[in-house]
Amino acid sequence: MGALVKKTEGLAGDPAKLMSFLTEARKWVRTDPGFDLETMLAVAASLRTVRPGDVEFVIVPAHQHPADVNRLQWDARGAERLFAGLRKK
Questions:
Q1: C-alpha to C-alpha distance for 37 and 63, rounded to whole angstroms
Q2: Does the chain have fewer CB atoms within 10 Å around its N or its C terminus?
């Protein structure tokens, strides 16, 4: 993910490249229904001044989904601890 952030650095300043990148990314990433292309563009615009070194990645605790071994399911308690910690920041 860090490499992706570095690779996309500067895209926010080029609307055509950003639109192309997000359009392609939407083919491979599933998002919540309300997180459409316009919302993604707005988020990207708000992050223009964020440098790659300022980004920190965390992993939501997960385990194998009971109905489908090819899927992961969040560990509810672990996820709540993670998000509670993020809310305090």
A1: 30
A2: C
Report which secondary-structure segment, H or E, holds 48: none
> How many whole angstroms separate alpha carbon 83 and alpha carbon 89?
10
Does the model's pTM come out above 0.85? no
**Cα(89)–Cα(85) distance, rounded to whole angstroms?**
7
Contact partners, residue 44, CB within 8 Å, separation at least 6:
11, 12, 18, 22
Which backbone phi and psi does 83 adopt, to 5 degrees? -70, -35
Q: Retrieve residue 9's tokens.
A: 């650095």
> Which two structure tokens, joined as six digits, stand for 3?
């490499």
Helix boundaries (H) for 1-89: 2-8, 15-28, 37-46, 76-88
Question: For the purposes of burial, counting CB atoms within 10 Å of the CB of 56, is it exposed (0-12), middle (13-18) or buried (19 or more)?
Answer: exposed
Distance separating alpha carbons of residues 83 and 86, to the nearest angstrom:
5
